[in-house]
Amino acid sequence: MKPLVLGFSGKIASGKSILSTEVASCLGWQRVSFGDYVRSVAQRQGLGESREALQAVGVSLVDQGMEQFCRSVLSQVNWKPGQPLVVDGIRHAGIVPILRQIVAPLKLSLIFIAVNESTRNTRLMDRGLTNWEQQQQIETHSTEAQVQTVLPAIADLTVDGNRTIEELVVEIVRWIQ
To answer: Which phi and psi (to 5°) does residue 60 adopt?
Structure first.
C-alpha cells in the first residue's frame, strides 16, 4: 500500500476521533488531531476545555494563519514528509488544500463521517450536552458551518457513522488499498 495522508471530518460527535484512532492503529500510522492541538493551546492559555473556549481558540488559530495552524498540528508527532499519517478533526475547507500542499507528494484523502441526528444526539448527551439550546449554539458556531455544508461535498469518501467502528475501519482500509 502506498503511503498517504487520511484526513477525517464530520460533525461534533460523529465518531471522528475513535474512528481515526482505530484506522491509524490498524495501519500502524501516526495520528494527529486538530482538536488535541486546540485543547493544548487552550490549556496553555488557561482557558479550560469548554466547547465555547475550544471554538474560540480554533477561530483564533485559523485567523492567525491556516498554514501555521496545520504545521503546528503536524508537529505534534514530529511528522516528516513522505510518512503516512491520519489527521483528525478537519473543520474548514481551506485547511484541505493547505494540508495537500504540505504533505505533497503524498496524496491527502478526505473522509467525511455522516451520522444521523438521533445517534449524534445520544452521543452528545453522553458527553453531558443535554441542553438543546446549548447544542444549537455549538452547532451554529462558525467553526461548524463548513462541516455541515462544504466538507461533505469535497470529501473523497463518505462513511456511515451509524455503523460499527470495526465495519468502518474495514471499509476505509479496503478503500485505500
So the answer is: -60, -45
Q: Look at residues 35, 21, 15, 9 and name the one whose alpha carbon lies nearest to residue 92.
A: 9
Is there a contact between 129 and 135 (Cβ–Cβ < 8 Å)? Answer: yes
Residue corresponding to grid cell 458551518: 145
pLDDT tens-digit readout, 69-119: 999 999 999 899 999 999 999 999 999 999 999 999 999 999 999 998 777
pTM of the complete model = 0.87
- Could you tell me the domains of the chain? 5-33+81-176 (3.40.50.300)
Band (147; pLDDT cuts 50, 70, 90): confident
Buried b (16+ CB within 10 A) or exposed e, 39-68: bebbeeeeeeeebebbbbbbeebbeeebee
Tens-digit pLDDT profile for residues 18-34: 999 999 999 999 999 99
Residue among 114, 106, 96 at smallest CA distance from 7: 96
Of 111, 116, 82, 96, which is closest to residue 172 (Cα–Cα)?
111
By CB atoms closer than 10 A (0-12, 13-18, 19+), residue 106 is middle
